[in-house]
Write a structure and sequence with these properties.
With about 260 residues, the protein is mostly helical. The chain has nine helices and two strands, in the order ααααααββααα.
């Protein structure tokens, strides 16, 4: 029903990412992840003498008739990997990277030129320092995890709003804050040494008593804020990881069901 040419045309056209995601998922399940494709075990523990005696080591590569079978699809994947560098990933991006990994395992990138064409963009893609984290917000009506429309902003017009807990934790972990806390600790130690040498009392209302209360309040606030941000972010990451694993398992079970019961 869905031909390979029709699905690739969807990827080339300017349509929504949801439609592209469905199309690339069908390509992966119907045309790529099927016979005669097969993964190569790496490292290869047994080799023939003719392979070892070659002056140049050859990478595993599919048979010549199939080397350009998915050439247009490989070009689309390469362009998409370059385009999403430094941007927020979508479901389409996840399926595209999953398909790229599968095609590499199936030996469709069996030359140094083809591998180098994807290695550098993938390394650049892993740099997520400019991409903000977006927490999932639970919809009270449906119970599904959605995102806040006011905070979800794409790079082509709008940017993702980073939760304030992330900004606060980054500020607390910064060099400037650590130096300020260290300075405060040294000041507190110096005052303690001064009090020990001079014997000046720290009775309630005295300058030393007020200084001690101020230092205590600062340390309590610093530890409380840091602990709260760590707890919130750990909960968000755990929830996001659980949702991703559930989504992946659902797709895997559904795919296995279709393979066992094609009709």
């Amino acid at each position: 029903m869905y031909s390979y040419e029709y699905l690739v045309t969807i990827l080339k056209n300017n349509v929504s990412d949801k439609l592209k995601s469905a199309a690339i998922r069908l390509i992966m399940c119907l045309y790529v992840d099927r016979d005669p494709q097969a993964e190569t075990s790496i490292p290869v523990l047994t080799r023939t003498y003719s392979d070892v005696s070659r002056p140049e080591v050859l990478l595993p590569y599919v048979d010549p008739p199939r080397r350009f079978q998915f050439a247009l699809l490989q070009q689309i994947l390469a362009e998409h990997v370059r385009d999403i560098a430094g941007k927020r990933w979508t479901t389409y991006s996840g399926h595209a990277l999953q398909l790229l990994e599968m095609m590499i395992k199936f030996n469709f990138y069996g030359t140094n030129e083809r591998l180098n064409a994807v290695i550098q963009p993938l390394i650049t893609l892993m740099d997520r320092r400019r991409v903000g984290a977006l927490p999932a917000i639970k919809d009270d009506n449906t119970g599904n995890n959605t995102t806040n429309e006011n905070s979800m902003k794409e790079d082509e017009g709008v940017e993702v709003v980073v939760p304030w807990q992330v900004k606060t934790l980054l500020f607390m972990e910064s060099i400037q804050t650590m130096l300020a806390v260290l300075t405060l600790v040294l000041a507190a130690v110096a005052v303690t040494i001064y009090q020990t040498i001079t014997g000046e009392p720290d009775s309630p209302g005295s300058p030393l008593f007020i200084w001690g209360i101020i230092v205590l309040i600062i340390f309590i606030c610093e530890v409380s804020i840091r602990g709260y941000c760590h707890t919130v972010l750990t909960h968000l990451l755990t929830h996001s990881l659980t949702h991703s694993l559930t989504h992946s398992l659902t797709h895997s079970v559904g795919k296995r069901f279709l393979m066992d019961f094609p009709y």
